[in-house]
Amino acid sequence: MDINNLGTCEENCNKKCYVELKDGTLVRKLCKEALCKVFNDCDGIINREIKKRNISIEEFKKLRDTKIESYDDNAKTIQEIREAIQYPDENDIFEKAIPKVDFYEYVVTTGQIWGFVVLAKHLNKIKTINDYTENLAVDIDPNNPLYLIKFILRNPDDLLDKEIFIIPFIKPGMPENPPLPKRCTGNGFTASGTENTLPEFRFIKNADIGVGSQVFEKKLDDLEELIQVYDDEAKSFIDYDGDTIIKKDNKFYRIDKAGNVMPVEIDESRIMELLPEI
Q1: Distance between CA atoms of 211 and 100, rounded to whole angstroms?
Q2: pLDDT tens figures, 83-136
Q3: DSSP strand E in 90-221: where?
Q4: pTM exceeds 0.85
Q5: How far apart are CA 250 and CA 255, in angstroms?
Q6: Nearest of 43, 37, 88, 42 to residue 276 by alpha carbon
Q7: d(Cα 193, Cα 178) in Å, to the nearest integer?
């Protein structure tokens, strides 16, 4: 094995990467290559549901991208399909994409998250800044870097509290509180207008981010660089300039910022996996 190539990541790599927190905990690095391996049956569920209803994929996409103006049969159908997709739990990683210019005001000083989010495992086909712009239907300048907040919750019970976390539906008797923005369809999917279907969720109140959460900068060449990790003592994200720990063939290696690689002994009780086994 050429250990000098350990720092190179691709979607079919079979190693694990970790970042080292200040207290010595090793947290699984939430890079695109690792998240792409998480099981995602969203498309399979949708195909099953539209087949049950004798709906073509083209008809489904039209319903998906149409804002609900009144609660008719079409609205009921698309929301039933959306509800068939598994609800998130404490094992899921969320992702929120925001412009770099908005990041520090949005989350760094609060250690909290709010607004529209998706599950990271549903983004396995989303590769470029332009993909994020089109598929998440958010105001992102494709000519500027993008920040990707990949996070878990301090209190997973927030996911069960409808005063905090919801599927953004428009339904009879369900007040828009807070009101849905114009871009929101009200059917629980992003209005992407593309081949990709992304279920979305909404934090209508602030929720605390948990240890293991990370921020990546999506650069103009579409590479992702880890720039910050959540620090439990500071209750906010802090800059990360530490080494990367690699596990390959049951051996651990430390890679510093200069790319130097050296074998290292690791106490595996310090590891916080976050993701399923590859």
Answers
A1: 22
A2: 999 999 999 999 999 887 777 766 656 788 988 999 999 998 998 888 888 888
A3: 94-99, 112-119, 146-151, 165-166, 201-208, 214-218
A4: yes
A5: 16
A6: 37
A7: 25
